[in-house]
Specification:
Elements: H1 3-22, H2 25-42, H3 52-74, E1 84-87, E2 93-96, H4 107-124, H5 127-138, H6 143-150, H7 154-172
Antiparallel strand pairs: 1-2
Length: 178
């Protein structure tokens, strides 16, 4: 696999995962750049035991976890925005919100508020739990893929996901309508 083929196939995946893990575009760009540089340097040693995307997801999560630990030691924590990475009408990169076909008048405001609560709750999870939730619920990875990416047995992935979902449910109780 050439470097260009690797970048073409993985750059957007890395950025989208980085955006969900960090919660904001600026940090996601920094993380994605760091991950892609690390991955390109290590590309000659990639054995092909797993898919390249699985390998680069693991690099992304590990690099992000290292940054979180470093930021915690230095006392940083950030506010977040939700959105996804895409192209605008001119083909330029942008982070934008997902829009429904025909939303109710207050639906966008309500959705933004809910997204904000969910993202804040995600940020309260331990980094391992947050990574598992993001990979499973947002990136829609299988338990097997998550296990490969994080170096965990499937049973551990399932139990951590169960506990993380329970924690999220508890954190979101005050904002969820009965």
């Amino acid at each position: 696999m050439t470097e260009q083929e690797f970048l073409d196939g993985n750059a957007v995946l890395v950025f989208n995962l980085s955006l969900r893990l960090t919660g904001n575009k600026s940090d996601a760009e920094d993380l994605a750049q760091d991950v892609l540089i690390r991955a390109l340097r290590a590309l000659p040693s990639f054995r092909g035991d797993s898919k390249a995307s699985t390998w680069v997801y693991r690099i992304t999560v590990n690099t992000w976890k290292n940054r979180v630990r470093s930021e915690k030691r230095r006392g940083f924590w950030k506010t977040v925005t939700l959105g996804f990475y895409g192209k605008d009408e001119d083909g330029e990169d942008e982070v934008r919100d997902v829009k429904a076909d025909e939303p109710a008048l207050d639906a966008e405001l309500e959705k933004t508020e809910k997204s904000s609560h969910v993202q804040k709750a995600l940020l309260e999870l331990e980094e391992d739990d947050r990574a598992i939730v993001v990979l499973r619920e947002i990136q829609e990875k299988s338990y097997e893929e998550i296990g490969e990416m994080l170096g965990l047995p499937q049973g551990t992935v399932k139990s951590r996901l169960f506990r993380a979902r329970a924690k999220l449910k508890e954190l979101l109780k005050p904002v969820v309508r009965a």
